[in-house]
Design a protein that fits this description.
Layout lengths: L10 E5 L14 E5 L5 H12 L5 H6 L9 E6 L2 E9 L8 E9 L8 H15 L4 E6 L4 H9 L3 E2 L4 H14 L8
Parallel strand pairs: 5-6
Antiparallel strand pairs: 1-6, 1-7, 2-3, 3-4, 4-5
Length: 182
């Protein structure tokens, strides 16, 4: 499904606590690093490969009050960024809540656990920044990402019945049971 076909509002997932995060084990041959000056074009290229979107790093990330280089993470194969995630904050969520933002993996590296690793690194960064819980927003059709978020301890956050129904459909596609009646 194309990004333009997504349903709004996006699906919300929450991780109730950041106190019990697992150890971060980097996939063999890859290394974790934070944003460095000059990385904007690499971030933009990675986001375009991962999502099919053109996004300007300065506009979307660097110009935000919450931006700090250590909050924009990359997993690299040598010097080449293969995955990214932001340990972010959004005013819509409570102050103690981090926001997992812009998790993207170059499709050439899919299936290697990079989405899990970079997301976990971002969650650990949030905890270092004093956040106690985390939230993210995703799309119904990002099934591989949703499976990864479940592995990381996120759960659906759906108060409206229409959103609960969307989660039920996602559950059927993933062969997982959640958002059941009763």
């Amino acid at each position: 499904m194309r990004t333009e076909d997504r349903q709004l509002p996006q699906l919300v997932m929450r991780r109730a606590s950041l106190s019990d995060l697992p150890e971060l084990l980097m996939p063999a041959g890859f290394r974790l690093r934070q944003y460095e000056p000059g990385d904007a074009p690499a971030w933009e290229a990675l986001v375009e490969k991962a999502f099919g979107w053109k996004r300007d790093f300065q506009e979307r990330i660097a110009s935000r009050a919450y931006f700090r280089p250590e909050r924009v993470l990359f997993i690299c194969n040598g010097d080449v960024p293969a995955a990214t995630a932001c340990a972010w904050e959004e005013p819509a969520w409570e102050e103690s809540c981090g926001y997992l933002h812009m998790v993207g993996v170059n499709p050439d590296y899919s299936g290697r656990g990079l989405g899990y690793a970079v997301s976990l690194a971002a969650l650990r960064r949030m905890r270092e920044d004093g956040k106690r819980q985390a939230v993210l927003e995703t799309d119904d059709f990002r099934l591989a990402a949703i499976k990864t978020y479940f592995k990381l301890g996120f759960q659906p956050d759906a108060k409206e019945e229409a959103v609960r129904e969307r989660w039920r459909r996602v559950g059927l596609q993933l062969n997982m049971r959640f958002m059941e009646e009763g």
